[in-house]
Amino acid sequence: MRISDSLAARLKELGVELRQGISLTEHTSLGIGGSTDELLLRRYDTIPEVMRLLAGANVPHKFLGGGTNVLIADGELPWVMLHLPSSNPAVRIEGNIAFVEASADLGGMVTFCAKNNLGGMEGLIGVPGSVGGALRMNAGAYGTQIGSYVREVELYRAATGQLEKLQGNDIRFDYRHTSFAPDDVMLRVKLELPSKPFKEILAGIKVCNEKRRGSQPLNQKSAGCIFKNPPGGSAGRMIDELKLKGHRVGDAMVSDRHANFFVNTANASCSDMLKLIDDVRERVRTAYGIVLENEVIVWRN
Ligand code: EPU
What we know:
Blueprint: H1 5-13, E1 16-23, E2 35-41, H2 47-56, E3 61-63, E4 70-72, E5 80-83, E6 91-94, E7 97-101, H3 106-115, H4 131-137, E8 140-141, E9 144-145, E10 150-157, E11 162-167, E12 173-174, E13 177-178, E14 185-192, H5 198-215, E15 221-225, H6 235-241, E16 248-249, E17 252-254, E18 261-264, H7 270-288, E19 297-299
Parallel strand pairs: 2-5, 3-5, 4-19
Antiparallel strand pairs: 1-2, 6-7, 7-14, 8-9, 10-11, 10-14, 12-13, 15-18, 16-17, 17-18
The structure holds uridine-diphosphate-2(N-acetylglucosaminyl) butyric acid (EPU).
């Protein structure tokens, strides 16, 4: 979708930068996705006005964080992409509190806090993506989930059209799910973290990194795990037991390293990946009677 010149001029007055015709293959870890215009929102205070302008001009939009957990449709996309560019500094520390921009890189934030002797998030170190994306999904790994440390979130609420602050106690963080509305936009978060010496945190980080390197296809294009684990079960183990490692549709393939990672081996399309996802879901349903739910977020056109 293309932004008209007149709308672009109005948006520019609000500090919004327009990037025309970007390709989402270059902005997602899967390397899949069509093209559209992108708006970089540098000033949070203008977001409500930007949203009103887009709604007034009938321009649909979606927010892209780190692009590491999305599968995006092919071709010309019928929406514009909104993105919060990273700001510097992305993290500020006061005692045991870290004030973090949602656009910050998750791993970078964990490392920055570690250097300030604040730990607890060692398990999250290798999870790719932005802090905002991690918050929305309640990202987790190796027994850690980000939600445990959240004390306050500043966000744009599409439901009210306002910037708001939510207290940690008022947000539900479940397994890869939160009580945020789908169109809430994460802006900043306040985390309360336990004090820990840097060396100790580093040792924990090393253990997680080694485990991850040993079991996940880190050097291939993927969106991490494709399916959520069913209660008490393991999607990866079931897919592996069905001997589906290496199973492919076009260039979309079930990783031969971890069966719940689906990788783009060269130029997979979104439709290849969706066919593979549906095929594997159906095979698991037939064999185990369990319908796997997507963990990856799918944006179809
Ligand atoms: N397994 C297999 N074959 C495989 C993959 C796994 O038999 O191909 C078995 C393992 O041997 C193990 C069990 O399945 O007994 C669980 O595997 P693993 O420890 O790799 O964890 P997982 O449940 O598959 C979850 C998260 C990962 C996270 C790891 C580590 C989900 C959907 N996945 O994977 O998160 O990194 O634990 O904590 O919850 C993600 O969210 O994208 C993600 C990668």
